[in-house]
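Troubleshooting: if your tokenizer reports a length mismatch, compare your output against this known-good record of 165 residues.
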Amino acid sequence: MKQLTASEVQFFLVISAIVAFVFGDGITAVMLMHFNGYAAEYSAVLRYFAVKNGLIAMFFFKVITATILIFIPLFVQKRDGSETWKINGFLLAFTLGGAAATIGNLGVIITGRVFVQPETVIIGFILLLAVLVELGDILDHRVMKLRSTTRPLLTEEEWIEQVYS
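Known-good structure output:
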């Protein structure tokens, strides 16, 4: 079986973060406000946006802002791959946070009762984000250190330059 590369894992995590955080949480937030009123949404920004512009506009606002948040690290990622696992940790936190928010919203929609407090989901997401990004940073440093110790002492160009100079 083929081993996944870090970029393939990153692609999967981008897709899963978009599905869970952008669409899962976004659609269930719209459903939550539709069935239970605008006050059911915990985010004051989304609640205000929905009251002023409607649920569909609020959904598109969430889609755009969340997608930008998810893609910012990919645009600033270094080309040498030195931040790959840090960004993967960021994306995994968005995936898990979006899944938790979606499950919390669905619980209220289906049963009418709050099983997971929104504060718990938000604090858990922030802590998970900090821990996974830090673990990714540690892993990136180890990978870069391993790469630097396993590379030949001289590159081919350096060897040719030394031999023929």
